[in-house]
């Protein structure tokens, strides 16, 4: 009788242990479904320990506080270029990541390398969900679509929040998303009621898109100027992005203020050498109202630079409205919130900094 009781207890113990093992196994393979910014439903592990970042998704992951979970990225991040603050701020970390794509305009994904690395998920920044589906089919790894198109777009904050949810950095992601929303609202509030007749006209030149451009390279719907309701003269053109204009057109506009990208001043100075009299005749040049706008279009949009550009342009164009804003303090607040470090000195050291510009030097 006693032996039967002992046997029953042993069997019961085995049953309990078996249940625990099964539960642990089930828990280990637990999954959930998230909806990415393109409306795609993606099944992912319940707990994501690591990820691969493609198509400049690493930038958004840095914003969301998930840097330490990146194990593979593109070759662009490995450079740690100061023109990409998120990569420069984490250059030592990215140096130890593996390249999973070339990045850049001719981006090519290294599908076999991704499979070998075997990440829990892939974050893919692109505007083409079909490419994401193709990569998921080739690798068998969940591909989550994210999209940071502009700093005043819901796609940016939605992407940051989604990444925070997937990687377990919700609090950091929320703080950054809320900060971005707050800056956009502040820029709008400071400038939306300024009458047009009190605004100077503006020409943004030497803008980069698909590479660098000289004095006549400009941009329609230039985000930092849109955010502060500036009168940007190229907006009257029949275009919606980067465009080359003639010198005659710029002379006809004769802007009150000119902004130039300091990273393209070699090209601007070539234009000046070829036609100094025309550029010198512009009112903004004669009055010394030529200022820097740091390039933010470098392997997609560096959002922190674009936001800082807006504050700098606002302080130049509307000094009374921005009288209570200390530009340097605001800029470092933005950089620290989004990439975790001061950055104005880095820009200055690399000749990308803010301030007045003298063409021809």
Automatic annotation (TrEMBL):
InterPro entries: ABC_Transporter_SBP, ABC_transptr_periplasmic_BD
Domain of life: Bacteria
Name of the featured protein: ABC transporter substrate-binding protein
SUPFAM superfamilies xref list: Helical backbone' metal receptor (SSF53807)
Gene3D superfamilies: Nitrogenase molybdenum iron protein domain (3.40.50.1980)
Stretches assigned to the Fe/B12 periplasmic-binding domain: 50-321
Signal peptide per UniProt: 1-25
Family (UniProt): Belongs to the bacterial solute-binding protein 8 family.
Keywords recorded for this protein, A-Z: Signal
